Amino acid sequence: MLDNLFTPTHLLIIFAIALLIFGPSKLPGLGKGLGEAFRGFKDGIKGEGDSAAKQDNNATRTTDATTAQTK
């Protein structure tokens, strides 16, 4: 059902409606804002994965240090 949702014809119609609603002067700013939002979202997801990996590494180091001290 949603397979043909973003065909070139549909995207052209969506772009034309956005052009009518926002006008040619505000459309580049709107695109820039959407791009920055997507980039921020992607960086946020990437950052969460990096921080989880760092926490795992820190936990492993702590466990290794504790094991070395007890021997």
UniProtKB/TrEMBL annotation:
<keyword id="KW-0813">Transport</keyword>
<feature type="region of interest" description="Disordered">
    <location>
        <begin position="48"/>
        <end position="71"/>
    </location>
</feature>
<dbReference type="GO" id="GO:0033281">
    <property type="term" value="C:TAT protein transport complex"/>
</dbReference>
<protein>
    <recommendedName>
        <fullName>Sec-independent protein translocase protein TatA</fullName>
    </recommendedName>
</protein>
<keyword id="KW-1003">Cell membrane</keyword>
<dbReference type="Pfam" id="PF02416">
    <property type="entry name" value="TatA_B_E"/>
</dbReference>
<dbReference type="InterPro" id="IPR006312">
    <property type="entry name" value="TatA/E"/>
</dbReference>
<comment type="similarity">
    <text>Belongs to the TatA/E family.</text>
</comment>
<keyword id="KW-0811">Translocation</keyword>
<keyword id="KW-1133">Transmembrane helix</keyword>
<dbReference type="GO" id="GO:0043953">
    <property type="term" value="P:protein transport by the Tat complex"/>
</dbReference>
<dbReference type="GO" id="GO:0008320">
    <property type="term" value="F:protein transmembrane transporter activity"/>
</dbReference>
<dbReference type="InterPro" id="IPR003369">
    <property type="entry name" value="TatA/B/E"/>
</dbReference>
<feature type="compositionally biased region" description="Low complexity">
    <location>
        <begin position="55"/>
        <end position="71"/>
    </location>
</feature>
<feature type="transmembrane region" description="Helical">
    <location>
        <begin position="6"/>
        <end position="23"/>
    </location>
</feature>
<keyword id="KW-0812">Transmembrane</keyword>
<keyword id="KW-0472">Membrane</keyword>
<comment type="function">
    <text>Part of the twin-arginine translocation (Tat) system that transports large folded proteins containing a characteristic twin-arginine motif in their signal peptide across membranes. TatA could form the protein-conducting channel of the Tat system.</text>
</comment>
<comment type="subunit">
    <text>Forms a complex with TatC.</text>
</comment>
<keyword id="KW-0653">Protein transport</keyword>
